[in-house]
Specification:
Helices cover about 95% and strands about 0% of the residues. It is elongated and about 75 Å long. The N and C termini lie far apart (about 70 Å). The protein contains two helices and no strands. It has one domain (about 1-75). The longest helix is centred in the middle third of the chain and has 49 residues, at about 1-50. It is mainly α and about 80 residues long.
Length: about 80
C-alpha cells in the first residue's frame, strides 16, 4: 500500500516537472515571437514613413485584391 502511494507521488512529481518544463519553453517561445512581431512592426512603420507613396499604393492594391476575392466568394 505504501509503495503504491510513493509510486503515485513520484508519477505526479514527474508530471509536474514536465508541465513546468513545457510552460517554461512556451514562455520563451512566446517572448521570442513577441520580439519578432514587434521588430517587424517597427520595421514596417519605418518603411512606410520613409516611402509613404509606396505604402499607400500597396494598401490600395491590397484593398482592391481583397475586395475582388470577397466579391467572387460571396456569389
Amino acid at each position: 500500500m505504501a509503495s503504491d502511494d510513493q509510486n503515485k507521488e513520484s508519477v505526479s512529481e514527474e508530471k509536474a516537472k514536465k508541465y513546468e518544463q513545457i510552460l517554461g519553453r512556451l514562455k520563451k517561445e512566446r517572448k521570442a515571437v513577441e520580439d519578432m512581431v514587434n521588430r517587424d512592426y517597427r520595421e514596417a512603420r519605418r518603411y512606410v514613413r520613409s516611402h509613404p507613396e509606396e505604402g499607400v499604393l500597396a494598401a490600395f492594391v491590397g484593398g482592391i485584391a481583397l475586395g475582388y476575392v470577397i466579391g467572387k466568394l460571396s456569389r
